[in-house]
Amino acid sequence: SNFVLGNAQVPSAFPVVYCSDGFCDLTGFSRAEVMQRCCACSFLYGPDTSELLRQQLRRALDEHQAFKGELILYRKSGVPFWCLLDVVPIKNEKDEVALFLVSHKDITSTKSCSGADSTKDTGGRRRFSRAGGKGFNASRRRSRAVLYHLSGHLQKQRKSKHKLRKGIFGHKPSLPEYKVAAIRKPPLILLHYGAFKAGWDGLILLATLYVAVTVPYSVCVGTGTEEGLPAARGPPSACDLCVEILFMLDIILNFRTTFVSKSGRVVLEPRAIACHYLAGWFPLDLVAALPFDLLAACQVNVYVGAHLLKTVRLLRLLRLLPNLDRYSQYSAVVLALLMVVFALLAHWVACGWFFLGQREVEGSPATLPEIGWLQELARRLDTPYYLTRRNCSTGGAGNGMGPGANCSGIGGLLGGPSLRSAYITSLYFALSSLTSVGFGNVSANTDTEKIFSICTMLVGALMHAVVFGNVTAIIQRLYARRFLYHSRTRDLHDYIRIHRIPRPLKRRILEYFQSTWAANNGIDTAELLQHLPEELRADIALHLHQELLRLPLFAGASRGCLRALSLGVRPAFCTPGELLVRQGDALQALYFLRSGSMEVLRDGTVLAILGKGDLIGCDLGGSLRPRRARADVRGLTYCALQSLGLPALAEGLALDPDFARTFRQQLPRELSYDL
């Protein structure tokens, strides 16, 4: 909305107490140039402005009546425009007119389309209307929306039109060439920090996790026996073939991927890259990429024991360890990694437990096993093991037996629980052993099983310490700020109780503490940055306070002056109803309103309503000595401000005398309200 608010309780003057950003954009005047001038906006009049409408507008203001009319106004640049002027009186709780809402709407395009070329005076009588008109009700509704805007619920983002010199905020300062310039790399060389390499590493990570799950299962669970002979190995799956292809491609890409040398230089030479990789991870990657499944898929006979070499692929997990440090600061990532590691360990223990039980069963092919954990599971599931017998065929002397001999022998061991039930039970035993002492329903019976259980419990105790220790640290990190907040709150309550602070003052203290905590989350910026070098602190201060230092008031300052001024800026906060400046107090700083709304009061009369982007202070004249404030400044909403103290201002201006003279001349024109 393009509007101004005028104080109706100051007769004849009706000064502007609030000016919207839209009005500044429409007219070209800054807020400081509009504040405290008459809300009739006579500074917008020009030679073509209707004299009749001027008088009618003035009469409506004097009589506290509504007004609506179309007239020609002039922007600051001198360009005329047709304006729909709408004045709406706003009453307070005593039914007295307290404010005038004067809205301006540019209707130049409408007037040009309609082709209305009538004279201004006659047109003024035709277009004039009073409070009974239809437009008044719409204006009244709009006035409610404007007051809602002023209450702080609708903060309009102020558009910044002014820019400082490019060397200060426009362009970043020059950095070393290797940080900003594109690296000139040879063809077919991959950068180790590029997007493609990051995506490829993620794909290899998924393939490595797949190997970590499937290889132990295929070695320990997937191989069975049938009548003492190795079971026929099934054809490799499509996932196994894809993983082997990925590992082989990864070796090729690693020969063409850059790395960082010990001196910190990015190495781009192919020969140096190859030598570095051959001396590093190449042997491990080569063994892990042996294509057993591809050979089996191509009908090539592979010795069954060679498949055990696939367990070497688990060593690829070691390549992930150097990359974990970069994620250690993210609590959710650390927690997820701990859960993945714990689940992998439980899976490996389950595979080992199943392999051990299977070996116990196969260790006595001539007799029925009795005390192993698989035998106990078979009895509970009513799927017992049983022996098969084979008959010797009758034959002559050539077969080593007497003629007509009829014998019988042990055939093999069959039955038992299914593979699915056995693995699930193994996983249940692994998790119960790693997380607790176990429930006893799946227990170790033989000496070998007991030794394995002891080792599992020792590993489980270590995992308890690692997992729960990290989880405790993560939880403490998540709630550290909350604990600090409650601690500070208890200290405040104790302080209030000890010193018997009255209830109204107690409420103000607690409200200010809670509001400031919500704004900065309890972070003390001065304490946090005190150990940094002054050069770095100045750059940080320039970034934090650039909204203030980008005002036209500081446009001519040198970089050294801006850095000195930025170090003197301090954050401030004001709650609703709290006084920022009291009438008669010494003004020690200039205040820049970053967010919220404030009002300037004198003897209960509203002199100005300030919003985001306004500058509050006083004309310093030739000296920088503090002056007494002539009015109160009080918060209407929660307000965030930046204060520039007079001592810091004097120190910064001393570095640039030319800018100091310009600053003193422009300050009265740039202040939204001169206190």
From TrEMBL:
Which Pfam families does UniProt cross-reference here?
cNMP_binding, Ion_trans, PAS_9
Which GO biological-process labels does this protein carry?
A: regulation of membrane potential
Q: Transit peptide among the record's keywords?
A: no
What membrane topology does the UniProt entry give?
A: Multi-pass membrane protein
Q: Which domain of life is it from?
A: Eukaryota
Q: What residues does the Cyclic nucleotide-binding domain cover?
A: 528-617
- Bilayer-crossing residues are 330-356, 422-439, 451-475
| Segments of this protein annotated with the region Disordered | 113-136
Question: One GO cellular component from the entry?
Answer: monoatomic ion channel complex
Annotated catalysed reactions: K(+)(in) = K(+)(out)
The protein's matches in PROSITE patterns, at most eight in alphabetical order, are given as: CNMP_BINDING_3 (PS50042), PAC (PS50113), PAS (PS50112)
| GO MF annotation: an example | inward rectifier potassium channel activity
Residues forming the PAC domain are 67-119
Answer yes or no on keyword Transport: yes
Pinpoint the PAS domain residues: 16-64
UniProt-annotated location(s)? Cell membrane
> Which CDD domains does the entry link to?
CAP_ED, PAS
Q: Mostly located where?
A: membrane
The protein's UniProt keywords, in alphabetical order, are: Cell membrane, Glycoprotein, Ion channel, Ion transport, Membrane, Potassium, Potassium channel, Potassium transport, Transmembrane, Transmembrane helix, Transport, Voltage-gated channel
According to its UniProt entry, what is the function of this protein? Pore-forming (alpha) subunit of a voltage-gated inwardly rectifying potassium channel. Charactherized by a fast rate of activation during depolarization followed by a rapid inactivation at much more depolarized value causing inward rectification due to a C-type inactivation mechanism. Exhibits a rapid recovery from inactivation.
The UniProt family comment states:
Belongs to the potassium channel family. H (Eag) (TC 1.A.1.20) subfamily. Kv12.2/KCNH3 sub-subfamily.
Q: How does it assemble?
A: The potassium channel is probably composed of a homo- or heterotetrameric complex of pore-forming alpha subunits that can associate with modulating beta subunits. Interacts with KCNE1 and KCNE3; these interactions regulate KCNH3 trafficking to the plasma membrane and its subsequent voltage-gated potassium channel activity.
- Protein name as catalogued: Voltage-gated inwardly rectifying potassium channel KCNH3
Task: Cite the source lineage.
Answer: Eukaryota, Metazoa, Chordata, Craniata, Vertebrata
